[in-house]
Amino acid sequence: MSTPLVSQQQKLDNLQAADKQHFIHPFTDSKGLAEKGTRIIERAEGVYLWDIMGHKLLDAMAGLWCVNVGYGRQSIVDAVAKQMQQLPFYNSFFQCSHPPAIELAQKIASLAPAHMNNVFFTGSGSESNDTNLRMVRRYWDLKGKPSKKTIISRVNAYHGSTVAGASLGGMSGMHEQGDLPIPGVVHIAQPYWYGEGKGLTPEAFGLQTAQALEAKILELGEDNVAAFIAEPFQGAGGVIIPPSTYWPEIKRILAKYDILFILDEVISGFGRTGKWFAAEYFDLQPDLITIAKGMTSGYVPMGGVIVSDRVADVIKQDCGEFTHGFTYSGHPVAAAAALENIRIIEQEQLVERVATDTSPYLQSALQQLAEHPLVGEVRGIGLVAAIELVQNKTTHQRFDSSVGAGTFCRDACIKHGLVMRSVGDTMIISPPLTISHSEIDALVAMATQALNDTEQFVQGK
Ligand SMILES: *Cc1c(COP(=O)(O)O)cnc(C)c1O
C-alpha cells in the first residue's frame, strides 16, 4: 500500500471519533465501545477482511453467518448493477410483480423440500419470523380454529430482534428490555447437553428436552397452540447441536398433535450443513422455513418464508386478503443478488463440497483442539462449530463469568488474524462455504495460538 501509515492512523482516529459521536451500534455496550474504539473494516476478498490499518483477518464467521459464497464476487456486483439500471424498485403489492422476484420464488421452491412450493419475501430474518407469527395465526383463523394462537419456542433460541422476533427468541437479556416476550409466546428447555445435561447421557437428555414440547402442548391444550418454532441447531445461542435423539422425538410429537412447525433456517439454509436446507439434513418436514442471511450471502439484505403447500393452500385460497407485507418484500435488486448467489452455489457445487470435502476436513482439524487443556468440547456439523472453554476438562467446570475467558480468547484471535465469535465461554465459527483446506489449516493454527494465550491469561487470574 502506498498510503503512508501516519495518514491512515489519522483517518482511523477521525472515523472512530465520528463513530463514537453519531453511531448507535446494534447489540453493543456503547460506553464500553467508545472506550475501546471500533474496529473499522475497509475491504474484503474471499474469506479475508482488511481493517483500515491494513491488518488482514480470516473471517471465520462469514460476516454474521451470512457470506456463504465469500467476499468479492464480481458477478453479484454485476447482477445488482444491471437490475438497478433496469428496475431499481417496484413493489409486489396491488396486483404487481416483477421478473427477479418471480424467478427467485420459483428457484427457491425448486431447492426447498418437495412439499414446499411458495415463498413470502421480506427484508430480514426478523421480518420473516414476524411474518411466521402472523401467518400461522391467520392459518388457524381460516381453518376455523381461532383459539390456536400460542407459539412454543425454546430458551436461548435466536429468532431476530423485532418485537415478535425477540419474543419468539429465548434470550433472557433481550426479554429484560421492553417487557418481552409478548403474550402468546412460551419457551421450553433447550437441548444443550454440554451446558445443561448434567448426569444424563446425550441421548437421554435429548429425549427429555424434546418431551418438554409434548408436556407444554398438553399443559396449554392442543386447541390453543398454533406452532412450534426452532432452529435446526441454535446459532447465536452458541452452536448448540441437539443430541441424536432430539429431532426424531420432536417429529413424533409433531405428528401426534395438530400444530404447525416453523424451522428457522436463517443460518442453516443455503448450504451450511452440506444440504441446501437443514430440514433435509435432520429429515424434518416443516410447515414454514425462515430464510435470510445466506440467501443473498449478505451482499444486500433479504429474507423470506418458504411456505408448505398445506399452509399456502389455505393462505392463498379465495378468502380475502392476508393483511401483511413490506415495502421491500421481493425487492428486485435483492432478488437479483439472491439469484446470482444461488447460481454461484450451484455452479461451484458448494453444497456438495461442504458435505463431502470441507466439512469433514474442518471438523477433523478442529478435533485437534479438543486436546487443548482449556477445551471441554469441540462440536460441529457442516461448516459450523463450537469450542467450549472450561476451567476443568474432566468435571466440565466453567470459568466464573467475571474471568471473561471467551472475550479474552476472541480478542486474542483478532490479534493473531482470526475472527471467531464468543458466546460467553463458547467460541464459535461459521466460515464462508468457499473456505479451502489451507485456509482451514490457518484458521486452526491461529485458534490454537489464541487458546494458548487464553490459557496463560486464565492462569494469571
Ligand atoms: C440472524 C438470525 C435471525 C434474524 O435475522 P435478521 O436478518 O438479523 O433480522 C433470525 N433467526 C436466526 C436463526 C438468525 O440467526
TrEMBL record:
Necessary cofactors: pyridoxal 5'-phosphate
UniProt KW keywords: Aminotransferase, Pyridoxal phosphate, Transferase
Family per record: Belongs to the class-III pyridoxal-phosphate-dependent aminotransferase family.
Transmembrane segments: none
GO terms of molecular function: transaminase activity
Domain of life: Bacteria
InterPro entries noted in UniProt: Aminotrans_3, Aminotrans_3_PPA_site, PyrdxlP-dep_Trfase, PyrdxlP-dep_Trfase_major, PyrdxlP-dep_Trfase_small
Name this polypeptide is given: Aspartate aminotransferase family protein
Gene3D superfamilies: Aspartate Aminotransferase, domain 1 (3.90.1150.10), Type I PLP-dependent aspartate aminotransferase-like (Major domain) (3.40.640.10)
